[in-house]
Design a protein that fits this description.
heterodimer, A: about 375 residues, mainly alpha, A middle domain of Talin 1, 2 domains, two-stranded antiparallel sheet, 15 helices, globular, B: about 450 residues, alpha+beta, four-stranded antiparallel sheet, two-stranded antiparallel ribbon, 18 helices, about 55% helix, HTTM domain-containing protein (chain B), HTTM_dom (chain B), transmembrane (chain B), lyase (chain B)
Chain lengths: ~375, ~450
Amino acid sequence: MKIRSTHLLFILGFFILISSCDDSSMNEKVDYDRTAFLENFADHLIIPAFDDFNSRVEALDAAVVTFSNEPTVSNLEQLQVTLKNAWLGYQYVAYLEVGPSADLFFRDEVNIFPADTALINTKIASQDYVFTGGSNNDVKGFPAIDYLVNGTAENNAEIVAYYSDTQNGSLRLTYLQEVTDELVTIANTINDAWPAYRDTFVNNLGTDIGSSTGIMVNEFNKQFDLRLKNGKIGIPSGVKSLERTNPDKVECFYGAYSKDLALASVRAAKEIFNGNYYGVGTEGTGYDDYLDALGAEVEGVDLSTAINDEIQNSIDKISAIDQSIQVEAESFNAEGDLVLAYNALQAVIPLIKVDMPSAMSVTIAFQDNDGD
Amino acid sequence: MKLQQYLHKEKHIAPLATFRVAFGVLMLLSIVRFWSKGWIETQYIQPEYFFTYYGFDWVKPLGNPGMFILFGLMGMTALFIALGFLYRYSAIIFFLLFTYVELIDKTNYLNHYYFVSIMAFLLIWVPANASYSLDAKWGLVKSRRLVPAWSVDIFKLQLGIVYFYAGLAKLNADWLFEAMPLKMWLPAKSHTPLIGWLFDYKWTAYFFSWFGAAYDLSIPFLLLWSRTRWLAYFAVIAFHVLTAILFPIGMFPYIMIVATLIYFSEDFHKSLWEKLGFSTSVNVLPERRSVGLLKNALLIMLAVHFALQLLLPFRYTLYGDNLFWHEQGYRFSWRVMLMEKSGYTNFTIEQKSTGKRMAIEPSDYLTPVQLKMMSTQPDMTLQFAHHLQELFEPQYGNVAVYANSYVALNGKGSKKFIADSVDLSAQKRGLRPKNWILPFND
């Protein structure tokens, strides 16, 4: 019976503990439907975006076929338009490297820049159409096609001549077609795989390593920090190399619309953050709602507001870049448009890399290990 | 005289032998697990840079296959400890190898690794192989069933310190009154089967916080007292199984569940051994052994050890401000799963001769785990700044290294962490207060 008295002590302690917390706020709960969040991402962002990207890449492919059959200036211009359209579409799906697109290492496969033009020319001459392996990442994808359709000669008439060359023209067209086919295969594969992967994605709840949300937050960060901030702006601007600028390392060197691509990228970040329906703009359940439900704040402001403000500032600063990025990058200017854009993007990083994952309990830059 | 009497007091070896076997087996399992997860490779071979402890810069990883051989030896000595074969040598070698590996990179610091080092150290000094061991069976040591009482009690004391100090560390405003960080961690687990729905409620976080603190503070005493022991042990199992489900803390819960068995009575442990077919009878009268010179040295060493155990966790008071923020005096103090801290740190290198600057991404040099730890622990940030200086000075001449660092603590929003005007390459490592850490100012 003595044991019973100690048990009683425990039970008593338990109730004291419970009653001491008897406060109406205790019944508050995190009111957020995580399944709805993932469903919105799958059904209204990811699947429609990859479907649209697939259409854009197929349109590019059709233009390549037309141009191959009939290399004229007007067909080339049509090809250049479809390339830009597909590349702009890419900027959105680049944030969504999860599931089927992660399996393919999507971004590395289609957008490593600058393209290695010397190697491309060698491969054209040797009829080498092997594109697998990391060493081939810079002879294919958008930057390679940019070189092939915008940069193989001084102007469009000469580019048409380049492909009409009696001796080498057909080899050049074959390479263009092979590189485009590679891109089409990737876009098709991802687009076909997503509907089947959709339920796996939605049911992979939680925020641990390997959860859908965990991967999405990490990829959102990688794309924004490494590919947008560093790749598109930082490296050309010279802030990462003792003021030595790199105008040749811009995303779209030959077509010279890197600024449009950067702008599309940062705008896509905002759309995705807010969970807006792809291409429609309807407000869906996004990270903003998630963070609001968790009550996340920074410096007394709602975290979702702070992130939206800083991303908007980045959009403004990139919009304000006066000339093309490669022209801006010809000389270093600590107060120039590129550095201002870089600083604006940099100001977003702590919010999306520290505050957001921390509030959501997502491990950033993860690697399997124990903690305590 | 009481002390002299206590030092002569003898107990049955059964609890100590159980502890020895359990420790050896769990260590062997831990090593097999660590190896099979590929962590020897990712934590000790792949990194280009290692964050050594201040004063232990001479500790270097052994590369491939050196690290694998080292872990192989460690596994073998763990098995020998379990079997009680060449026990003392095995215990010494295990302790040295394990501790060496922990000293290679503070990125991998875990309280439970520190705990294992201490347990291995204590095992060196006790006759845990005097029975139920190959040493005793094969006559390598004199077989006996009675061992000094202190050789069992030091483990209870050490475990008691671990729990009690873990409990003391929880007595802070964030933990008790904000239920932080559990209020952030639990909702992320709301998809856990059966109990997950509870984690979206605020009171669950408060309940877990208070229960956790009460558990840690009281469990050593409840385990010592025979009347509450079974109930306490049930709580031990429930508590650690729950933490194992909720948090990625590896072997720690299982180590604690098994280690706390040492609190059970002689009779309990004797019946365990009897069930396994071993005799537990004591057929010789306890011999009176004198407390010799060696024993005195041992006594002093253990006294120093436990004094340090009691004092070290309080060294943080020498640094002021918020310990969780600056983490000076944080390690080696049983602060377990106590805060949610995340950060972002990158660096700017300035060539002194030209004043030109460049932004550096530490992710280009560090593994993801190293990056995570370096971003929020200032001693590591400083080490890495020195490393960058060494990397870039051959190319650019004298450089200054500045950190651009933001840290969020317990959901309070990110704040600037390190003064970005301070050239870290000019700051010395060491234990002195780091005045370039910005104040927390909650």
